[in-house]
Amino acid sequence: LALDRPGLLADVGLAFAECRIRVHNAKIATVGADVEDVFFITGTDNHPVTQDGQLDCLRERIVHRLSERA
């Protein structure tokens, strides 16, 4: 759960791209100032993301991008 702001989904999308993760589907919900998004992702091989390094990359990039404009 995060606060909505302009460019939020673009920043999350960039984090996926930086970590070589594909988004196949997403459920986006905004209620007032809150946003809750669910992403269905795989690696570039279309298999579930299970490598710790790739998951760590995603965690790090999302936190960095969300903190950058906070």
- Low-pLDDT runs of 5+ residues are none
In spatial order, strands of the major sheet run 1-3-2
The radius of gyration is 12 Å
Give me the strand/helix succession. EHEEH
Set out the fold topology.
Blueprint: E1 2-3, H1 8-18, E2 21-31, E3 34-43, H2 52-68
Antiparallel strand pairs: 1-3, 2-3
Structure notes:
The protein is of the alpha+beta class and 70 residues long. It contains two helices and three strands; from the N terminus they run E-H-E-E-H. It has helices spanning 8-18, 52-68, and strands spanning 2-3, 21-31, 34-43. A three-stranded antiparallel beta sheet has the order 1-3-2, with helices on one face. Strand 2 and strand 3 (34-43) form a beta hairpin. Helix 1 packs antiparallel against helix 2 (52-68).
Question: Would you kindly provide a brief summary of this structure?
Answer:
Helix content is 40%, strand content 33%. With 70 residues, the chain is α+β, with helices and mostly antiparallel strands. Helix 1 (8-18) runs antiparallel to helix 2 (52-68).
Keywords summarizing the entry:
single chain; 70 residues; alpha+beta; 3 strands; 40% helix
